[in-house]
Amino acid sequence: MINLLTPEFFFTVIRVTTPILFAAMAAIICSKSGVINIALESIMLTAALTGVLASGFSQNIFIGMVGGILGGMFIAGALAYFSLYLKADIILVGIALNLMAVGGTVFVMFVFTGDRGSTNSIRSLQFPDVNIPLLQDIPVVGTALSGHNILTYLAILSVIGVWFFLSKTTYGLRLRSVGENPDAATSVGIDVRKVKLVALLISGFLGAFGGMYMSMAYLSVFSTNMVAGRGFISLAAASMGQANPFGTLLAASFFGLMESVSYQLQAIGIPAQIVGMVPYVSVIIGLVLYAQYQQSLQKKKTLSKQLKEDPNEA
Amino acid sequence: MLKLIKQRWLDQPLDNRFESIRFSMAIVISLIVTLVLVLLVSNEPLFALQQLFLGPLASIRKFGNVIESMIPLTFLGLSVAIMFSARQFNLGSSGALFLGGTVTAVVVLTLPLPGFVLSVVAILLGAFTGGLVTLIPAFIKLRFGASELVSSLMMNFIALNLGFFIILNYYRDPQAGSLASFEFPSSSLLVQLIPGTRIHTGLLLLFIMIVLIYLFIQKTKWGYALRMTGFNKSFATYSGISTGAVILYSQFLGGILAGMAGSVEMLGMYDRFRWQAMPTYAFDGVIVAVLAKNKPQYIPLAAFVLSYIRIGADTMSVNSDVSFQVIAIIQGLIIIMIAANAFLAKYRQRLVVQEAITND
Predict the structure, then answer these.
(1) Do B144 and A38 touch (CB under 8 A)?
(2) Residue A133, exposed/middle/buried by CB under 10 A (0-12, 13-18, 19+)?
(3) Chain B residues near residue A295 by CB distance under 8 angstroms
(4) Which domain holds residue B197?
């Protein structure tokens, strides 16, 4: 029987939303500064591997985390260098980086561990789960909300952090001005290129956590192409959330919900391939609904504007 | 003689000259990176490099492999080039290839048609299916204004699942050990062209398509509209070009070509549906199209180069201790450097100044 209203189900939703949420926050920062970061997929994948390798070889979770962050920021930095400084088309560089990451991570994994499919031969570490005092004692809510991985709570904090950064800090304002009107920003002395570089690096930082969640919390190993399109899904989430952190949180949760529903469907015997389509179909439907909503909003705006300007004609 | 070559070279417009230099530099740098990587990870670097660069020439069969894998790469390159020429960043080619191949398998297993007609119908239907896969993101973009980039990427995952669903549930041969469909009727398979290799008649279809696409892009008004839309969409709109139609047909055509790649591959290289995952061609169309600068006439060459180093890398990973994936790093580097407009910009500046001085 399909059971959607249990606390365990909500627990799963939160669990699978976490990586998408991190990457979607990364996507917001980029889109606010006016760059498209389709390399999020490779940022996540690279960080997932470097995190596992660093934690496996050092046996220290903190070094593992630093390794993951550096991996993610390295890809973001490469994207920034080639697109901002060498003037390459950012979409092409993104595609190239994604290509490199899928094969490159396997190459690096093989060099360091001798494994080809997943890093089974090294014992890498995982981020700990956290039980929240008081909250865990509340019957239903506690089961759903407590006991998640520490990165899940960090992801939720990152939503608030990104919101605060973008709307309450000077640098956030500067970043948004670069995205909205780079010429105006230049005219008041803002170094547009540098701001975009910073935005990309922040997105590498946030995306890295999404990747590390995959290999150091959700699973305990890195396996080939394990990000499986989540970087792209988070781009869709950010655009549906209109690059607003809280709207994006909703959109990301929607995709997480659909992914969890697909697991439930599999449990009641619906073929795995049909189930596998659910999250991706939901992204397309979500994009369409959102775009349609945008269009109708636009129409209303123009209509009310016409009414205001010339009530007789309309 | 040398003087003549030099004169020829200098007669070329500066931009062409600069582009060739930049292109060669991109290749040279990638080769150096390859060298360094192999030296770093291998215990027998010289042997590994020899396998990488000369492996494909070792036997007729090996060289045949290069041509065989060049066929789908060229189709995919054409597919991506036509979409990118219109500046439509549709990345659904691999999904189109996969579903196109699946439909072809289904057609040859179900329709009771005589041999040759059956393959033609199967390839046409496969190509059409591929077109539908890329048309959906195009339609969504036109009708709802959502970016084709994300929706086409999602289509790849959907196509993959749908294809496996169809084969697993309706056409799976339980006798076959691994996941495979029933055997195709042997008369529907594409005929082998060169003995000792698996090069098949798909190659002929490929050459026809290259010529057709070249003529379409360069010589027809639709091709002109497509290029104009890619060059400057607003300008195209104001000059009366229906850019909406261009968005649709450029992506539909792109999908048709990718679907055809899948169909031809299915009937030319296999006797059953044997794909276990998305074939490795995932984003290969992009690499080929970027290497060929979206020009149909250069696409076979770019596909050949890519196919050659792939087979080389394959030989290397079988015979030596360097893994195949080293190629992924090299491919990415080549694309990035070719795409990087400001790469060698200072050198270009010097060329321009030099030319200005000599012309004075």
Answers:
(1) no
(2) exposed
(3) 144-145
(4) 60-324
Instruction: Examine residue A283 and state whether it is found in any structural domain, yes or no.
Output: no
Q: Which of residues 29-48 of A touch B (CB under 8 A)?
A: 36, 38
Joined tokens for residue B360 = 């004075």
Query: Is residue A243 situated within a structural domain?
Result: no
Given the structure tokens 């030596």, which residue do they identify?
B320
> Would you say A180 and A173 are in contact if contact means Cβ atoms under 8 Å apart?
no
Q: Domain span at residue A223? A: 7-231
This complex has an ipTM of: 0.82
> Which residue of chain A comes nearest to B151, CA vs CA?
A284
> Angle at the Cα of A147 (from A142 to A149), degrees rounded to 5?
140
Asked whether residue B288 is assigned to any structural domain, the reply reads yes
In a domain, B187, yes or no: yes
Q: Is residue A1 part of a domain?
A: no
Q: Which residue of A has its CA nearest to B336?
A: A93
∠ at Cα B147 (B146, B152), nearest 5°?
Answer: 110
In chain B, which residues have their Cβ closer than 8 Å to the Cβ of A239? 147, 150
- Window 173-192 of B, Cβ < 8 Å to A: none
Domains identified in chain A, total number: 1
Closest CA to A94 of B305, B149, B83: B149
Q: Is residue B8 part of a domain?
A: no
> How far apart are alpha carbons B128 and B117 in whole angstroms?
16
In a domain, A299, yes or no: no
Environment class of residue A262 by beta-carbon count within 10 Å: exposed (0-12), middle (13-18) or buried (19+)? buried
Q: How many residues does chain B have?
A: 360
State how far residue A217 is from chain B, nearest Cα, in angstroms.
24
Tell me what pLDDT residue A308 has: 73
pLDDT the model gives residue B360? 64
- As for how many domains chain B has, the answer is 1
What parts of chain A have a pLDDT lower than 70?
A: 1-3, 309-314
Of A256, A213, A203, the closest CA to residue A48 belongs to A213
Q: What is the CATH number of the domain that holds B257?
A: 1.10.3470
* Residue A134 touches partner B, C-beta closer than 8 Å: no
Q: Chain-centre distance of CA A248, in angstroms?
A: 10
Please report the pLDDT score of residue A139 as a whole number: 78
- Subunit contact A236:B150, Cβ cutoff 8 A: yes
In tens, the pLDDT along A148-167 reads 899 999 999 999 999 999 99
- Can you give the three-state secondary structure of B102-127, one letter per residue? HHHHHHHHHCCCCHHHHHHHHHHHHH
Q: Which mean pLDDT values do the consecutive 10-residue runs of chain B (360 residues) have?
A: 76 76 83 88 88 89 92 94 91 93 93 87 95 94 85 90 91 83 85 83 92 93 92 89 92 96 92 82 81 89 90 89 84 83 71 74
Of B154, B325, B340, the CB nearest to A87: B340
In a domain, B30, yes or no: no
